[in-house]
């Protein structure tokens, strides 16, 4: 439920999410060496090192951030061992009370989206039984296949109390190639915003937000301002703060007047803070997460 994310944001007074996008290069050398000494230079060794890194980050952050966002690609890279590490990371974060937004940007024709939706948010049918496979709280979804590709995710959200964030205006430099094209007098991302709004219509939570959120990049503040008006009841996931250059005053455009409405992601700037600022991984990540929280809160006002 988006309500559960909102409550965690309010409890921590922090509208930010820490991205868990772990490349081996981001890990301290001794952490990688220890795992390689035990398991060799193998996917298993890499996955063990990454889980250790994620645990260190989660332990350092869970009492100050409401959510984490593991990016699936950084785990898929290490095959089955990487996927297992992703699942262990999801479980560990949930045990620590964090809301887990799995960033896998899924989306396909309806039938295949249904399989993705069951895999990541709902439960898989096995004979008479149903088992959760990944059991994330939320999933990023690529909605550019249209309504039939998104509806199965919405159904699983309603059935199992989950949420999704659909890509509307992405943070990357080429996002305008398609998303900014004008059609029928307005940009494609605005058409997408109207669809996202419609998909969420039937399921408002108690704080007035729907289970169908939108991804709106921190790097496009003018567009965010428009999108905030088009989708007043939609929660925004705002990536692009920090490493991609988004600033607090930029992300502030994605919030509503009540200080709710958006959660801002940073991955590299938190994970790799120890490389830039010195100190150990966990403490440096915590210091950066606190700095980011205070920076954004001062631009947004109270949560
Ligand atoms: O869906 C996302 O999270 C996402 C959408 C988008 O438009 N831009 C974007 O950067 N992301 C993700 O947000 C994270 C940004 O990471 P940093 O640039 O290291 O903070 C990565 O996991 C990206 O895959």
Primary descriptors:
single chain; 303 residues; alpha/beta; TIM Barrel; 17% strand; binds orotidine-5'-monophosphate
Task: Produce a short descriptive summary.
The protein is α/β, with parallel strands linked by helices and 303 residues long. The protein is built from 14 helices and 12 strands. The chain has helices spanning 2-12, 29-39, 43-61, 73-76, 79-95, 110-120, 147-160, 176-179, 188-200, 221-230, 248-251, 268-271, 273-277, 281-300, and strands spanning 16-20, 67-70, 99-106, 124-126, 129-131, 138-141, 163-169, 182-183, 186-187, 212-216, 236-238, 262-266.
How would you describe what is shown here?
The structure is a single chain. The protein is globular, with a radius of gyration of 19 Å. The chain has an eight-stranded parallel barrel, surrounded by eight helices. It has a two-stranded antiparallel ribbon with strand order 4-5. The chain has 303 residues and is an alpha/beta fold. The protein has helices at 2-12, 29-39, 43-61, 73-76, 79-95, 110-120, 147-160, 176-179, 188-200, 221-230, 248-251, 268-271, 273-277, 281-300; strands at 16-20, 67-70, 99-106, 124-126, 129-131, 138-141, 163-169, 182-183, 186-187, 212-216, 236-238, 262-266. Strand 10 (212-216), helix 10 and strand 11 (236-238) form a beta-alpha-beta unit. The chain starts with a helix and ends with a helix. Helix 6 runs parallel beside helix 7. Residues 19, 21, 71, 103, 105, 140, 170-172, 215, 217, 239-240, 242-244, 265-269 line the site of orotidine-5'-monophosphate.
